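tokens incoming
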């Protein structure tokens, strides 16, 4: 078996929103868990919520699958950055052409495509960093709307 055998996650119980001067922040309580990854495939585990003591079902994937998913998100991030650079280069090229030779719609279209690709790259980068291989299962015994399984800090 190669790779880490454990993963540290936190079960969060979202208590609600606290609004102050036009800002809304979510308040929650968390409890950390050290989970053992299976040798291959996936495994269901039952965790306990720190606030309501309800059982929360989660699925733990093996290290190889988690590594492949993270690599896929990294590849998507790099592809989006490449497309961003290409569309920005096309926009600059169209903007520098003489007035009679350029199509007026291609410059704003290239800038818009570059902005969309940049947002996609940032989203893929965030997904890569936050993927732990542990997902919350929707078929738990209690409503799971108030619970989240996230990477533990520290």
């Amino acid at each position: 078996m190669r790779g880490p055998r454990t993963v540290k996650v936190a079960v969060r119980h979202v208590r609600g929103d606290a609004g102050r001067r036009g800002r809304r922040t979510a308040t929650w309580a968390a409890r950390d868990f050290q989970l053992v990854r299976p040798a291959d495939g996936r495994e269901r585990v039952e965790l306990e919520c720190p606030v309501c003591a309800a059982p929360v079902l989660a699925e733990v994937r093996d290290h190889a699958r988690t590594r492949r998913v993270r690599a896929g998100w990294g590849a998507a991030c790099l592809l989006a950055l490449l497309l961003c650079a290409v569309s920005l280069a096309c926009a600059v090229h169209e903007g520098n052409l003489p007035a009679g030779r350029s199509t007026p719609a291609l410059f704003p279209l290239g800038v818009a495509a570059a902005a969309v690709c940049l947002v996609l790259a940032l989203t893929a980068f965030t997904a890569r960093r936050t993927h732990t291989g542990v997902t919350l299962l929707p078929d738990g015994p209690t409503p799971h709307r108030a619970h989240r399984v996230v990477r533990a800090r520290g």
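note: Residues 99 and 107 are 12 Å apart (CA to CA).
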